[in-house]
Specification:
heterodimer, A: SH3 type barrels, three-stranded mixed beta sheet, three-stranded antiparallel beta sheet, globular, B: 408 residues, mainly alpha
């Protein structure tokens, strides 16, 4: 990421896609770090998912959204929003493109995978989620 | 070349002429003659402007209209728009589904409630198996059967000078009040200038993989499709005027929408009209379902769409399937579909300015749009439409209450 970019226009709320242009989610929040030497803040990671969005929006709606999203997740990382390290971000002109495939991001799009395995894939004519 | 036009035709037949129009146009024609035809002309111009603008944005940025609301105006604004349009469009899904069932009732004599689950299964099969372009072509072309309404106008041997006099009068007919006249003007706007047409058209442009070089094809779709929808809407108003107005008959059922065609053209005409009604409501069921799915998927950045097999967009597919089940259940409660339609289109008109604003802002942004940014025509018509939609939005609910949904 280059210095002096408008986060509001080039990163925040933009569509995230993986290396194969498959949608991953939105950039729902960004994680910034203030360097110890007092330089400008740096983007460490982008957060995606309804939990990150709910926590960013706050208020009643945001709290409900965040807690529902957090309860729907499983595994050791539940309770924390999905974070994708800034080092994985490639081109970000119209879309924010990651340099890895969605399958290498086990935390992202969990509901999509759960529905694929438990509901949709078993039905005839659904196609294969791994195509 | 013919097939290239069908996205516009589907948007026109299925989006412009949907259950809302079939009900509202016949109702308005019977009560006010052609004295509200000018509203349809304005609605056609307004929706053409915004459909063209949102599709042009989609060609340039590959982002559909609802997507932009969030990246431009932030997650809170877009969430408000999402919840509002989700509720209104979900109501419309129920009404459109009932419309399919009512068309089947008119053709078969079997009560529409028995047809509702069958219609839902048909819709599900089409969503699951048919690719986007095949769907749009079939319903676009079948919907052309609606042109039988235009033929029926001639066969009813109208007094053309009286029709013209009615169409050029902006005032309620005798015995009708100004609030009722204005309420039905808003109903027509809500039925004809629906945000879901714009969301569907721009998402369809993405699904059809249109690029800036397809600009001309897109514009031809807009210029052919929406005025065709407007023509059909005015034809429905005209036949209702010719058959019901002098007799003082109120339109309360969708069978009355097609009755004038049967009177003018006999059984064959009626059969063609029923094919048209079936195609229009079926197309609109798909459009409203997809639009709700698109809105939700685009807000959260999910995979969406008909170009993907269902397993590649499971959250999208699950959302629209769940909504279809919910609408079927709602339709089976025996809620009157005509009443639901009237409320849905009035609420839809309240949401209009919120849907138009982000599109106008992005369309006008030269940093994003480059040489495809709005010209003077788009900006002028777009701004006037936005201002009008703000007035409509503010007046809709008070008029709904004041006129008891048009009863007085």
């Amino acid at each position: 990421m280059t210095d002096h970019e408008s986060l509001r226009f080039t990163l925040l709320d933009q569509q995230l896609v993986d290396a194969d242009d498959r949608p991953v989610g939105r950039v729902d929040d960004v994680l910034l770090e203030l360097p110890d030497d007092g330089g400008p803040p740096k983007v460490v990671a982008v957060l995606t998912g309804a939990q990150a969005l709910g926590e960013r929006m706050g208020g009643l709606t945001g709290d409900v959204m965040a807690s529902v999203a957090s309860r729907m997740r499983s595994g050791e990382h539940r309770g924390e929003p999905v974070a994708i390290p800034a080092s994985l971000i490639g081109d970000h002109a119209d879309l924010v493109k990651l340099t890895v495939a969605l399958d290498d991001l086990p935390q992202a799009a969990g509901l999509e995978r759960w529905l694929a395995h438990h509901l949709v894939e078993g039905l005839p004519g659904a196609g294969d989620a791994r195509d | 070349m013919l097939f290239g036009f069908t996205l516009g035709t589907l948007s026109a037949i299925g989006g412009f002429i949907d259950i809302g129009d079939l009900v509202a146009d016949a109702l308005v024609g019977a009560r006010f003659g052609l004295r509200l035809a000018w509203v349809t002309v304005l609605a056609v111009i307004g929706i053409m402007c915004y459909a063209e603008m949102s599709a042009r944005i989609a060609l340039k940025t590959r982002r559909p209209a609802f997507d932009l609301a969030r990246s431009r105006l932030g997650p809170r604004y877009a969430l408000g728009g999402l919840i509002g349009s989700f509720l209104v469009t979900a109501l419309l899904v129920m009404a459109e589904l009932s419309g399919i069932a009512l068309a089947l009732q008119l053709a078969s004599g079997v009560h529409y409630l028995l047809w509702v689950p069958i219609a839902a299964v048909l819709v599900f099969i089409v969503i699951w198996t048919l690719p986007f372009e095949a769907t749009e072509r079939i319903y676009g072309l079948l919907g052309l059967a609606m042109l039988v309404f235009v033929v029926a106008v001639w066969h009813l041997n109208p007094d053309w000078s009286r029709m013209w006099a009615s169409a050029t009068t902006v005032a309620p007919t005798s015995g009708e009040s100004w609030p009722a006249y204005l309420f039905f003007a808003i109903t027509l706007i809500g039925a004809q200038m629906t945000p879901y047409e714009m969301f569907f058209f721009s998402s369809g442009a993405i699904e059809s993989r249109w690029r800036p070089k397809d600009l001309t094809e897109m514009r031809v779709n807009v210029i052919v499709g929406f005025p065709l929808g407007g023509l059909l809407a005015i034809a429905i108003q005209a036949v209702a005027f010719l058959v019901f107005f002098d007799a003082g008959i109120q339109v309360e059922h969708i069978s009355q929408t097609v009755l004038p065609v049967a009177l003018a053209l006999g059984k064959v005409g009626l059969a063609i009209a029923l094919v048209g009604v079936f195609a229009a409501t079926f197309g609109a069921t798909l459009e409203t379902l997809f639009s709700t799915g698109y809105d939700l998927a685009q807000y959260f950045g999910w995979a969406y769409g008909e170009v993907q097999p269902p397993a590649r967009a499971t959250r999208f597919t699950t959302t629209i399937t769940a909504l279809l089940l919910l609408s079927t259940a709602l339709a089976l409660t025996t809620l009157n579909p005509i009443t639901v339609t009237i409320y849905a289109v009035v609420f839809s008109s309240v949401l209009l300015p919120f849907a138009f604003l982000p599109v106008l802002l992005v369309g006008n942004d030269k940093r994003v749009m480059g040489e495809l940014a709005n010209g003077r025509l788009s900006n002028t018509v777009g701004t006037i439409t936005l201002l009008l939609s703000i007035v409509v939005s503010a007046a809709a609910i008070p008029l709904l209450i004041l006129t008891k949904a048009g009863a007085s």
